[in-house]
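Supplementary Note 3. Input sequence used for the single-chain structure prediction.
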Amino acid sequence: MSVRRLADPQFQPPAFAFTGDNLDWAEKTIRKYPEGREQSAVIPLLMRAQEQDGWVTRAAIEHVAQMLEMPLIRVLEVATFYTQFQLKPVGTKAHIQVCGTTPCMLRGSEALMDVCRSKIHHDQFHLNESGTLSWEEVECQGACVNAPMVMIFKDAYEDLTPERLSEIIDEFDAGRGDSVPTGPQIDRVFSAPETGFTSLTDEKAVLKANRKAEPKNAGGDKPEVAPSQAAKPKTAAPETDPTIKSPSPVKADLAAEKAASAEAPKGDKAAADLAEPSVEGEVTAREHPDKRDGTPADYRAPEDMEGEPIGPAGRRRKSEKKAEPGKPSPEGKAEAKKPARAGNPKTGDEGGDK
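The predicted structure, written as C-alpha coordinates, is reproduced below.
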Protein backbone atom coordinates (compact mmCIF):
# COMPACT_ATOMS: atom_id res chain seq x y z
CA MET A 1 0.00 0.00 0.00
CA SER A 2 1.34 3.44 -0.92
CA VAL A 3 2.26 5.91 1.79
CA ARG A 4 -0.30 8.68 2.12
CA ARG A 5 0.84 11.98 3.59
CA LEU A 6 -0.83 15.27 4.32
CA ALA A 7 -0.43 18.17 1.92
CA ASP A 8 2.56 20.46 2.26
CA PRO A 9 2.26 23.32 4.79
CA GLN A 10 1.91 25.98 2.09
CA PHE A 11 -1.41 24.42 1.05
CA GLN A 12 -2.81 24.02 4.56
CA PRO A 13 -5.35 26.60 5.79
CA PRO A 14 -4.68 28.14 9.22
CA ALA A 15 -7.92 26.92 10.84
CA PHE A 16 -11.08 24.91 10.29
CA ALA A 17 -14.61 25.13 11.61
CA PHE A 18 -17.85 23.45 10.60
CA THR A 19 -20.59 25.65 9.23
CA GLY A 20 -23.72 26.02 11.33
CA ASP A 21 -25.66 23.32 9.51
CA ASN A 22 -22.71 20.95 9.42
CA LEU A 23 -22.03 21.52 13.12
CA ASP A 24 -25.62 20.62 13.99
CA TRP A 25 -25.30 17.51 11.81
CA ALA A 26 -22.00 16.54 13.46
CA GLU A 27 -23.39 16.88 16.99
CA LYS A 28 -26.46 14.85 16.04
CA THR A 29 -24.24 12.16 14.52
CA ILE A 30 -22.13 11.92 17.68
CA ARG A 31 -25.27 11.40 19.77
CA LYS A 32 -26.12 8.31 17.74
CA TYR A 33 -23.33 6.39 19.47
CA PRO A 34 -23.51 5.05 23.05
CA GLU A 35 -21.80 6.84 25.88
CA GLY A 36 -18.10 6.14 25.75
CA ARG A 37 -18.26 5.19 22.05
CA GLU A 38 -18.55 8.68 20.56
CA GLN A 39 -15.16 8.31 18.87
CA SER A 40 -16.79 5.92 16.40
CA ALA A 41 -18.10 9.02 14.60
CA VAL A 42 -14.62 9.90 13.36
CA ILE A 43 -15.22 8.69 9.78
CA PRO A 44 -18.57 10.49 9.28
CA LEU A 45 -17.11 13.72 10.65
CA LEU A 46 -14.05 13.52 8.43
CA MET A 47 -16.27 12.90 5.42
CA ARG A 48 -18.40 15.91 6.33
CA ALA A 49 -15.28 18.04 6.60
CA GLN A 50 -14.15 16.85 3.18
CA GLU A 51 -17.55 17.65 1.65
CA GLN A 52 -17.34 21.15 3.12
CA ASP A 53 -13.82 22.05 1.98
CA GLY A 54 -13.33 19.53 -0.84
CA TRP A 55 -10.44 17.78 0.92
CA VAL A 56 -9.29 16.87 4.44
CA THR A 57 -6.95 19.49 5.85
CA ARG A 58 -4.66 19.22 8.86
CA ALA A 59 -6.80 21.79 10.65
CA ALA A 60 -9.91 19.67 10.01
CA ILE A 61 -8.19 16.59 11.46
CA GLU A 62 -7.22 18.53 14.56
CA HIS A 63 -10.75 19.93 14.90
CA VAL A 64 -12.34 16.47 14.67
CA ALA A 65 -9.87 15.09 17.21
CA GLN A 66 -10.80 17.90 19.61
CA MET A 67 -14.55 17.36 19.12
CA LEU A 68 -14.30 13.63 19.81
CA GLU A 69 -11.63 13.98 22.52
CA MET A 70 -9.37 11.63 20.58
CA PRO A 71 -5.58 11.62 20.37
CA LEU A 72 -4.52 13.40 17.21
CA ILE A 73 -2.53 10.39 16.00
CA ARG A 74 -5.69 8.23 16.03
CA VAL A 75 -7.53 10.59 13.70
CA LEU A 76 -4.44 10.84 11.50
CA GLU A 77 -4.37 7.03 11.25
CA VAL A 78 -7.94 6.98 9.98
CA ALA A 79 -7.51 9.84 7.53
CA THR A 80 -4.31 8.46 6.00
CA PHE A 81 -5.56 4.85 5.83
CA TYR A 82 -8.78 5.25 3.85
CA THR A 83 -8.30 6.39 0.26
CA GLN A 84 -11.78 7.94 0.27
CA PHE A 85 -10.22 10.90 2.10
CA GLN A 86 -8.48 13.39 -0.15
CA LEU A 87 -5.40 14.69 1.64
CA LYS A 88 -4.46 17.24 -1.02
CA PRO A 89 -6.47 19.97 -2.77
CA VAL A 90 -8.71 18.69 -5.57
CA GLY A 91 -10.59 20.43 -8.34
CA THR A 92 -13.20 22.85 -7.08
CA LYS A 93 -15.64 21.89 -9.85
CA ALA A 94 -14.84 18.22 -10.41
CA HIS A 95 -12.51 15.53 -9.11
CA ILE A 96 -12.72 12.60 -11.51
CA GLN A 97 -12.02 9.09 -10.20
CA VAL A 98 -11.38 6.70 -13.09
CA CYS A 99 -11.85 3.00 -12.31
CA GLY A 100 -8.84 1.00 -13.48
CA THR A 101 -9.76 -2.47 -12.25
CA THR A 102 -9.89 -5.44 -14.66
CA PRO A 103 -13.45 -5.12 -16.10
CA CYS A 104 -13.04 -1.40 -16.79
CA MET A 105 -9.49 -1.89 -18.06
CA LEU A 106 -10.67 -4.51 -20.55
CA ARG A 107 -13.34 -2.13 -21.83
CA GLY A 108 -11.14 0.93 -22.30
CA SER A 109 -10.42 2.67 -19.01
CA GLU A 110 -6.87 3.47 -20.17
CA ALA A 111 -8.32 5.59 -22.95
CA LEU A 112 -10.39 7.48 -20.35
CA MET A 113 -7.21 8.18 -18.39
CA ASP A 114 -5.59 9.53 -21.54
CA VAL A 115 -8.49 11.99 -21.81
CA CYS A 116 -7.85 13.13 -18.24
CA ARG A 117 -4.15 13.49 -18.93
CA SER A 118 -4.78 15.66 -21.97
CA LYS A 119 -7.59 17.83 -20.56
CA ILE A 120 -6.60 18.14 -16.86
CA HIS A 121 -2.99 17.20 -16.05
CA HIS A 122 -0.52 14.55 -17.06
CA ASP A 123 -0.18 13.30 -13.46
CA GLN A 124 -2.78 12.26 -10.94
CA PHE A 125 -3.68 14.46 -7.95
CA HIS A 126 -2.59 17.59 -9.80
CA LEU A 127 -4.90 20.51 -10.54
CA ASN A 128 -5.38 22.04 -13.96
CA GLU A 129 -4.19 25.58 -14.53
CA SER A 130 -7.39 27.14 -13.22
CA GLY A 131 -7.59 24.80 -10.21
CA THR A 132 -11.08 23.60 -11.10
CA LEU A 133 -10.35 20.00 -12.21
CA SER A 134 -8.28 17.06 -10.97
CA TRP A 135 -8.30 13.28 -11.46
CA GLU A 136 -7.01 9.97 -10.08
CA GLU A 137 -7.15 6.25 -10.82
CA VAL A 138 -9.07 4.17 -8.27
CA GLU A 139 -10.03 0.56 -7.66
CA CYS A 140 -13.40 -1.06 -8.35
CA GLN A 141 -16.41 1.20 -7.83
CA GLY A 142 -19.04 -1.54 -8.14
CA ALA A 143 -20.41 -0.91 -11.63
CA CYS A 144 -18.51 -3.61 -13.52
CA VAL A 145 -21.44 -4.52 -15.74
CA ASN A 146 -21.49 -0.92 -17.02
CA ALA A 147 -17.73 -0.62 -17.53
CA PRO A 148 -15.89 1.61 -18.12
CA MET A 149 -17.01 4.22 -15.63
CA VAL A 150 -15.89 7.18 -13.53
CA MET A 151 -17.02 8.77 -10.28
CA ILE A 152 -17.30 12.52 -9.91
CA PHE A 153 -17.82 13.33 -6.25
CA LYS A 154 -20.76 11.04 -5.33
CA ASP A 155 -22.19 10.36 -8.82
CA ALA A 156 -21.30 7.56 -11.22
CA TYR A 157 -21.06 7.96 -14.99
CA GLU A 158 -21.03 4.61 -16.79
CA ASP A 159 -20.74 3.06 -20.28
CA LEU A 160 -18.30 5.78 -21.23
CA THR A 161 -16.32 6.41 -24.38
CA PRO A 162 -13.37 8.81 -24.56
CA GLU A 163 -15.51 11.24 -26.53
CA ARG A 164 -18.33 11.17 -23.99
CA LEU A 165 -15.96 11.65 -21.05
CA SER A 166 -14.40 14.64 -22.82
CA GLU A 167 -17.87 16.20 -23.14
CA ILE A 168 -18.63 15.57 -19.44
CA ILE A 169 -15.37 17.21 -18.37
CA ASP A 170 -16.16 20.28 -20.48
CA GLU A 171 -19.62 20.53 -18.92
CA PHE A 172 -18.24 20.41 -15.38
CA ASP A 173 -15.50 22.91 -16.18
CA ALA A 174 -18.15 25.27 -17.52
CA GLY A 175 -20.18 24.93 -14.31
CA ARG A 176 -22.94 22.87 -15.90
CA GLY A 177 -22.21 19.58 -14.15
CA ASP A 178 -25.74 19.34 -12.76
CA SER A 179 -27.13 19.03 -16.28
CA VAL A 180 -25.11 15.88 -17.05
CA PRO A 181 -27.25 12.75 -16.53
CA THR A 182 -25.78 10.23 -14.15
CA GLY A 183 -25.62 6.47 -14.63
CA PRO A 184 -25.31 4.82 -18.07
CA GLN A 185 -24.40 7.18 -20.90
CA ILE A 186 -26.01 4.95 -23.53
CA ASP A 187 -29.62 4.06 -24.27
CA ARG A 188 -30.32 1.54 -21.51
CA VAL A 189 -31.80 1.58 -18.03
CA PHE A 190 -29.25 1.01 -15.28
CA SER A 191 -27.82 -2.49 -15.83
CA ALA A 192 -30.43 -3.77 -18.29
CA PRO A 193 -29.13 -5.49 -21.46
CA GLU A 194 -27.94 -3.11 -24.17
CA THR A 195 -29.98 -5.02 -26.77
CA GLY A 196 -33.17 -4.78 -24.74
CA PHE A 197 -35.12 -7.42 -22.89
CA THR A 198 -34.97 -10.97 -24.20
CA SER A 199 -37.51 -12.44 -21.77
CA LEU A 200 -40.68 -11.23 -20.06
CA THR A 201 -41.12 -8.73 -22.85
CA ASP A 202 -44.90 -8.50 -22.38
CA GLU A 203 -45.11 -6.62 -19.12
CA LYS A 204 -48.92 -6.70 -18.95
CA ALA A 205 -49.01 -10.47 -19.25
CA VAL A 206 -46.83 -11.02 -16.22
CA LEU A 207 -48.61 -8.60 -13.93
CA LYS A 208 -50.62 -10.37 -11.28
CA ALA A 209 -53.39 -7.77 -11.53
CA ASN A 210 -54.03 -8.73 -15.16
CA ARG A 211 -54.34 -12.45 -14.53
CA LYS A 212 -57.76 -14.05 -14.46
CA ALA A 213 -58.72 -15.52 -11.13
CA GLU A 214 -58.98 -19.28 -11.48
CA PRO A 215 -61.86 -20.84 -9.53
CA LYS A 216 -61.15 -23.61 -7.12
CA ASN A 217 -61.52 -27.14 -8.52
CA ALA A 218 -61.53 -25.71 -12.01
CA GLY A 219 -60.61 -29.10 -13.41
CA GLY A 220 -63.70 -30.87 -12.04
CA ASP A 221 -64.36 -32.62 -8.78
CA LYS A 222 -60.77 -33.52 -8.19
CA PRO A 223 -59.95 -33.64 -4.48
CA GLU A 224 -57.56 -31.13 -3.14
CA VAL A 225 -54.06 -32.46 -2.62
CA ALA A 226 -53.01 -32.44 0.99
CA PRO A 227 -49.85 -30.54 1.83
CA SER A 228 -46.67 -32.54 1.58
CA GLN A 229 -45.37 -34.30 4.66
CA ALA A 230 -41.93 -34.85 3.21
CA ALA A 231 -40.30 -32.88 5.99
CA LYS A 232 -42.26 -34.77 8.65
CA PRO A 233 -41.80 -38.49 7.99
CA LYS A 234 -43.73 -40.94 10.12
CA THR A 235 -41.47 -42.94 12.39
CA ALA A 236 -41.73 -44.98 15.55
CA ALA A 237 -38.17 -44.20 16.65
CA PRO A 238 -37.93 -43.28 20.33
CA GLU A 239 -35.80 -40.26 19.40
CA THR A 240 -38.86 -38.62 17.80
CA ASP A 241 -41.41 -39.75 20.39
CA PRO A 242 -42.79 -36.54 21.97
CA THR A 243 -43.92 -38.42 25.08
CA ILE A 244 -40.34 -39.31 26.04
CA LYS A 245 -38.65 -36.62 28.08
CA SER A 246 -34.96 -36.59 27.37
CA PRO A 247 -32.55 -36.57 29.04
CA SER A 248 -34.05 -38.66 31.83
CA PRO A 249 -33.47 -37.38 35.38
CA VAL A 250 -33.30 -40.98 36.66
CA LYS A 251 -29.79 -42.40 36.74
CA ALA A 252 -29.21 -45.94 35.49
CA ASP A 253 -28.31 -48.73 37.95
CA LEU A 254 -24.67 -49.70 37.38
CA ALA A 255 -25.20 -53.23 38.69
CA ALA A 256 -28.12 -53.80 36.32
CA GLU A 257 -26.12 -52.45 33.40
CA LYS A 258 -23.20 -54.71 34.23
CA ALA A 259 -25.47 -57.76 34.49
CA ALA A 260 -27.05 -56.99 31.12
CA SER A 261 -23.69 -56.40 29.43
CA ALA A 262 -21.76 -59.19 27.75
CA GLU A 263 -18.29 -59.87 29.10
CA ALA A 264 -15.35 -59.27 26.84
CA PRO A 265 -13.67 -62.48 25.64
CA LYS A 266 -10.57 -63.46 27.58
CA GLY A 267 -7.41 -63.52 25.59
CA ASP A 268 -5.18 -66.63 25.47
CA LYS A 269 -1.66 -65.46 24.63
CA ALA A 270 -0.31 -69.00 24.30
CA ALA A 271 -3.05 -69.99 21.87
CA ALA A 272 -2.66 -66.78 19.93
CA ASP A 273 1.05 -67.49 19.46
CA LEU A 274 0.39 -70.85 17.84
CA ALA A 275 0.44 -71.26 14.08
CA GLU A 276 -2.95 -71.56 12.41
CA PRO A 277 -3.37 -75.19 11.18
CA SER A 278 -5.62 -74.23 8.29
CA VAL A 279 -2.94 -71.90 6.96
CA GLU A 280 0.39 -73.43 7.93
CA GLY A 281 -0.71 -77.03 8.22
CA GLU A 282 0.58 -77.62 11.73
CA VAL A 283 0.12 -76.47 15.28
CA THR A 284 3.51 -75.20 16.41
CA ALA A 285 4.70 -72.15 18.26
CA ARG A 286 5.73 -69.39 15.97
CA GLU A 287 9.40 -68.43 15.82
CA HIS A 288 10.44 -64.88 16.60
CA PRO A 289 13.96 -64.30 15.28
CA ASP A 290 13.85 -60.70 16.47
CA LYS A 291 13.47 -61.77 20.09
CA ARG A 292 16.29 -62.88 22.42
CA ASP A 293 16.30 -65.24 25.32
CA GLY A 294 16.89 -63.82 28.72
CA THR A 295 15.47 -61.29 31.10
CA PRO A 296 15.04 -57.57 30.35
CA ALA A 297 17.89 -56.86 32.75
CA ASP A 298 20.31 -58.45 30.29
CA TYR A 299 19.61 -55.74 27.71
CA ARG A 300 20.66 -52.65 29.58
CA ALA A 301 22.41 -49.85 27.77
CA PRO A 302 26.23 -50.25 27.75
CA GLU A 303 26.78 -47.02 29.69
CA ASP A 304 24.61 -48.38 32.50
CA MET A 305 26.50 -51.67 32.84
CA GLU A 306 29.12 -52.43 35.50
CA GLY A 307 32.79 -52.70 34.61
CA GLU A 308 35.42 -50.70 32.79
CA PRO A 309 34.56 -47.56 30.87
CA ILE A 310 33.56 -48.16 27.27
CA GLY A 311 34.12 -46.30 24.06
CA PRO A 312 37.13 -44.33 22.80
CA ALA A 313 36.31 -41.39 25.07
CA GLY A 314 36.11 -43.64 28.13
CA ARG A 315 32.46 -42.84 28.95
CA ARG A 316 31.47 -43.74 32.49
CA ARG A 317 28.31 -44.29 34.34
CA LYS A 318 26.49 -41.23 35.62
CA SER A 319 27.33 -42.20 39.18
CA GLU A 320 31.07 -42.23 38.49
CA LYS A 321 33.23 -39.12 38.57
CA LYS A 322 36.18 -38.63 36.29
CA ALA A 323 39.43 -38.43 38.23
CA GLU A 324 41.70 -35.47 37.73
CA PRO A 325 45.15 -36.14 36.19
CA GLY A 326 47.67 -37.38 38.78
CA LYS A 327 45.02 -38.15 41.35
CA PRO A 328 43.54 -41.54 42.17
CA SER A 329 40.14 -42.34 40.76
CA PRO A 330 37.16 -43.01 43.07
CA GLU A 331 38.01 -46.71 42.84
CA GLY A 332 41.49 -46.01 44.25
CA LYS A 333 43.37 -46.48 41.02
CA ALA A 334 45.48 -43.80 39.46
CA GLU A 335 44.19 -42.78 36.06
CA ALA A 336 46.53 -44.04 33.43
CA LYS A 337 47.93 -41.63 30.93
CA LYS A 338 46.78 -42.01 27.38
CA PRO A 339 49.47 -43.82 25.39
CA ALA A 340 51.18 -41.92 22.62
CA ARG A 341 49.92 -42.65 19.14
CA ALA A 342 52.14 -44.96 17.22
CA GLY A 343 53.86 -43.63 14.15
CA ASN A 344 56.52 -41.11 13.15
CA PRO A 345 57.07 -38.15 15.46
CA LYS A 346 55.55 -34.85 14.41
CA THR A 347 57.76 -32.65 12.31
CA GLY A 348 57.70 -29.15 10.95
CA ASP A 349 54.60 -27.14 11.70
CA GLU A 350 53.09 -29.91 13.82
CA GLY A 351 55.45 -29.08 16.67
CA GLY A 352 57.67 -32.20 16.72
CA ASP A 353 61.44 -32.47 16.38
CA LYS A 354 62.84 -32.15 12.97
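The mean pLDDT is 80. The chain has eleven helices and five strands.
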